């Protein structure tokens, strides 16, 4: 467990740049453009985080829909975002 | 989900995490590397396979990679907390909030969690959800920040705040104690629960370097009862002075304690060792001890 203890020590001169590096953003998004579809085997494991009931996958809208929670969880670049705060509330007619 | 007092503002935890990923350099999250190495080591001592594993953590691929490299599991799902970090060699498979785990019951064989559970408002609840996601005889390995972590920062901030404002506000989160963790695992229904801890002393050029690193890690103050708004520069400056006075080494660098609490537990299965029911012994204790039994 010792190597990490040197971690912060190893870059005393560099740390001053950490805050400035915010300008070189975008890379986080660019790296994700590699997949569009969710792995069907992953879908088998997933349930609604709030009600633990099954989800249905809407490939067109790229959403995982929880009927019981009335929420649609977004799938971004093939990655299901299972965060209730980021889910879309289902409309009356859905 | 619960009426228990909310210690952490989870939206703030999420926002800090996203910001750290977007603007910081998550590869600086060296603690994740330490924890991933630790998990790999623990996994190496378990002589069985876990076909499907879930690695809850991020923001880097270190944990998922460590589990995959262990050879114990041929399918490792990387679940990043609140936001997907950089791909690395093992891109994120899903994004989760570990207080509301989106996993079907008995769906995975191994769950590892790195440096996420210290922000749980309801740790027993989070552990129960992990246990339910595990198949019988599935394993959970988790590491969280706890014990007397950042005790130096807590002291320095409190001393500076009393000096400048005459009071204190919550700035460093309370930490879980290892002695409580074994009981929590048991309460959550894990068999053969084990909790232990590892104390690290990190050294920084100045206290400000430590504070900056906490922000890079997305570990800024997310306490629900925190004082809102910007922390006055004078307070940070005075806290840094006090920190340097009290906690520096002869070479001028400052120390910071980080205690990593490691948890492990198994989803119950009949094959596991368990105590026999009282009165079911087939051999007399006196015989085993080669002595004579004295009736009382």
UniProtKB/TrEMBL annotation, chain A:
Mention any Pfam family matching this sequence.
Trm112p
Q: Where is the composition biased (Low complexity)?
A: 13-26
Q: Which InterPro entries match?
A: Trm112-like (IPR005651)
The record's listing under Gene3D superfamilies reads:
2.20.25.10
**Sequence segments annotated as region (Disordered):** 1-38
Give GO cellular component annotations, separated by semicolons.
Answer: cytosol
Any coiled-coil regions, as ranges: none
* Amino acid composition bias (Basic and acidic residues), ranges on this chain: 29-38
Q: Which family does it belong to?
A: Belongs to the UPF0434 family.
**Name the record gives this protein:** UPF0434 protein A6302_01809
UniProtKB/TrEMBL annotation, chain B:
EC numbers on record: 2.1.1.197
Which keywords appear in this protein's UniProt record, sorted alphabetically? Answer: Methyltransferase, Transferase
Per the database record, which ranges form the Methyltransferase type domain?
Answer: 94-141
- Keyword rRNA-binding present in the record's keywords: the answer is no
Transferase listed as a keyword:
yes
Extract the GO molecular function terms from the UniProt entry: malonyl-CoA methyltransferase activity; S-adenosylmethionine-dependent methyltransferase activity
Q: Which Gene Ontology biological process is one annotated for this entry?
A: methylation
Which Pfam families does its entry note?
Answer: Methyltransf_11 (PF08241)
Top EC class, one word: transferase
Q: Which Gene3D superfamilies does the annotation name?
A: Vaccinia Virus protein VP39
Put simply, this protein is called Malonyl-[acyl-carrier protein] O-methyltransferase
Q: Which gene encodes it?
A: bioC
